[in-house]
Amino acid sequence: MYFSVFQRVSSLSFCQHLSVIWFVLWSQWGTEGAVVHLYVSPSGSDSNTGLQSSTPVKSLQHAVDLLQSRDIQGNMYRCAVSFFCPQAIFVELMQGYYDLTSTLTFAHAINGTAVFRAFQGQEVHLTGGRHILSDHFKHVTDTKIQQRLPEVARTKVLELDLTAVGITNLGSLTPYGMAYSTWTAPLELFINGKPLRLAQWPNEKFINILSVPDGEKGRRFTYNAGGRDVAWTLETEPWVYGWWYWSWADESLPVAHVDAHNHTITLAQDSQYGVRVGHYIPGFPTGGSQQGGYFQVINMLSELDEPGEYYIDRTNKKLYLWPNTALQTLTSSDIVYVSILSRCIRIESVAQKLNFEDFTVENCRQHGVHTVLTVGSFAINCEGDCRRVSVLASEIHDTCGGVHIKGGDPKTLTSSEVLLQDNHVWDFSRTAAVPCRAFDIGGVHVTVSHNYIHHGQYTGIVWSGNDHVIEYNHVHHMCWNSSDCGAISSGRDWTWRGNIIRKNHIHHTLRYFPGADVRGIMLDDEYSSVLIEGNIFYDNEVHANIGGGRDNIIRQNVMYNATKYSIQVDGRGLGSGGHGVYLTQKLQGSLFNTTLWKTRYPALAAILQKHPTAPEGNQIYDNIFYNPIGIKGIQYSGSNLERKDYFDVHNNFRAYSPGDFWSPKDADFRLRCNAVQWADQEQFPSPVSVEDVGPQVPTGPNYLRARRHPASARTTAVPVACDSSTVAPATTAPRGSYMPDGSSPNTLYPNIPKEGCWFVVDHCPKAPAAEGTHKDDIGTQAGTEEGCLARAAQQWRYCGSSPTGQVVAVYGPTGAMTVAGDGCFFAEYGCQTQNPGFHRDTFAEQHQNASHNEAACLARAAPQWAYCGSHADRPITSIYRPTGNFRTAGAGCWIKILSCPADHTLQGYFYDAWGATNLATDRYRDECLERADRFWNQCGSHDNAPVTAFYRPSGASRTVP
């Protein structure tokens, strides 16, 4: 299939679009070496030739039939042989509405290229609907109907006798939502290009399910409707729409019975996942297992209570509406349509060169453009193996989905050469949520570039397949009616490799409903191997996540002002809740073992050699984070995930002030102050400007020429002075540990020289000469604090591992020391009635095997400090004496720098007073641990000069690199 789309898609019934066809036609009317024009007009005649603007044909299907006629095909063959051919055929659509009585069908291949376009940029509408004159609508006079209407609507609602205007095909109400991506809308109503909606309640948001009497797999549920459900019992075809179990799975369902006395609804069929009690509170989203369980009632005459709503009485063929016009009534100037056709344009032959340009396609019940290879309900729908399809400079809105397209050859990884560029897509989930995406791409190498996508109930861009490029798009306000969602997302496949998401602006993807987080980019259910680079994320709940997958790279992004955390990662494949069996089956059914795929995706070829469900090989580096105090940069959701072979997190910059960016309120994220210094050092690329994302050309047809979305101009205001948001650092510090670790002077052994490694041995049965204080030559030769302190346990074992003796190792340059011996000990300044000093942790030894379990011993420091009152001047150190390893719990965030080549003023083991004052590092673990990155960067980012941050209230630490 070869076709391009340049147009505006608007007011589509369920999912449709607008386009122009580009189609080369050789000299079938005897014109040699010239361009041929075929004119079409709603006021023309199919008995005309159509070769002059004064003699246009009337119907589009007649024009298509002319282009596909056998005589013309024969002439085209002779033309090709004789080389006397027109360059192209332009089907010139003259001003007006083209109301199709049947789908415009391209059933035969056309040799050459044809362009269907608006003649001289005139206003042209191709509709799949029926125009209804305003004088056919009357005020409701039937008293029974008036009594069923809400009182506020009785003088506002108009009615239409559908049979009187010849409309009998009303379509059928059928379920829609997550499980119904192929849904076809019934008859719908549009006024002046704007859709109306089925009457519903509540008019905004949802109501909670209060109970499920038959259990979650039952069909009954109760609610509180404030008594208005008495009117529901009179409805002839009531429906409900909701998020019945999960806040990522919407579904509409027919109602079997309404019990207004017990405030109970019984569904006519099962919900896909069941029904649960709801905990939805507008403005206060909850999480976890409390998601789902809320709904609306729809298709009820008794709820037709505001402008823009309608209801169809299918038994009596009556349409009731409250017009969504400024006057809330209809005049002769209002254009009213109802949708009739399922598809507006159908292309059955794959050998087409078609271009649709500069006109509107609207009022179809399912697709605007449909190929025989596709299913679905998008404005433009093409899959199977679509090649060289371009959708350019279009406007698509009020649909259920924008473009659904799949092409290319996975066997050979041959590109589809599909280009979706410079489009404006918004309000593309008008009816349903989850199945309605702005772009749903698959196959091999689809490029999605420079599009403006906004205001979707669920995801904006979904991809499957390989080697796609998603770049320079402006995406915002996604997931506004759901949770566990991503503005751009994919999931549950290890083989979809080679995909790139770069240089997009993604913002205001926030959660307003209960359930799991919403993200700017969501890599769901162990999705693996995507490159996310150079994007600007701001004002999202979570900017990006890695949902247990592998080999993903997140680098060189600006991540500003997350409301929950910047990046969330997990290891869901490590537990029983993973998808390993399903993913392995998909993998083994793929081409991953072919020579081509092994060459292109070597990490995929080796995936089964290790632990495929482990989140291995992910990299997060060279990103810039800014968050308010207490918002994490990276959240590890799960235990034992902070491993470099899982998530290699390094060399990220933590901005501490909005002043590190030029003007975030104007989406101007040029770097300045500390950020620009780091960026220059790391060769961080300039953040992509908001002016360079989204459409770079005007979108939509000439008659409605909508300029591309307003971009924030470069601000000319002078930014605030660098670091003006900081305050002076704290002047007091918590006390260092009783057993010196370098954070305070060694008062226990003050006479140890400030060089070398020293032993203090009180008892050495196997080598009595080693008793006393003396220099340890081996530890001194090691030359490091770590090497020296490790010698304590070695010397204790050399002395015979006596339970009554101990060995102290002291590193002279810093005064840090440790003690080796038997058992688990505390070193403290005193707790309640205890005196300062060393004493055995008898509780841990008796109840937690801490004499022989190092982890159990060291974990005791933090709870013991809390038990003793969490005093800033009484830190507690746990020591596992068989190894000499220790862990200190206490107040504050402490930094240990043994070497700082780029700044010799930074060294030693010190309290982070500036961080405590400006970042609350004493209260927030992650704020403290992220300081290791900042100091390491400040010291020059040398692999042989690590920096460690210690968050003493929990005993946690982090070393970079």
Automatic annotation (TrEMBL):
<protein>
    <recommendedName>
        <fullName>Right handed beta helix domain-containing protein</fullName>
    </recommendedName>
</protein>
<dbReference type="Pfam" id="PF13229">
    <property type="entry name" value="Beta_helix"/>
</dbReference>
<feature type="domain" description="Right handed beta helix">
    <location>
        <begin position="445"/>
        <end position="571"/>
    </location>
</feature>
<dbReference type="InterPro" id="IPR006626">
    <property type="entry name" value="PbH1"/>
</dbReference>
<dbReference type="InterPro" id="IPR039448">
    <property type="entry name" value="Beta_helix"/>
</dbReference>
<dbReference type="InterPro" id="IPR011050">
    <property type="entry name" value="Pectin_lyase_fold/virulence"/>
</dbReference>
<keyword id="KW-0732">Signal</keyword>
<feature type="signal peptide">
    <location>
        <begin position="1"/>
        <end position="33"/>
    </location>
</feature>
<dbReference type="InterPro" id="IPR012334">
    <property type="entry name" value="Pectin_lyas_fold"/>
</dbReference>
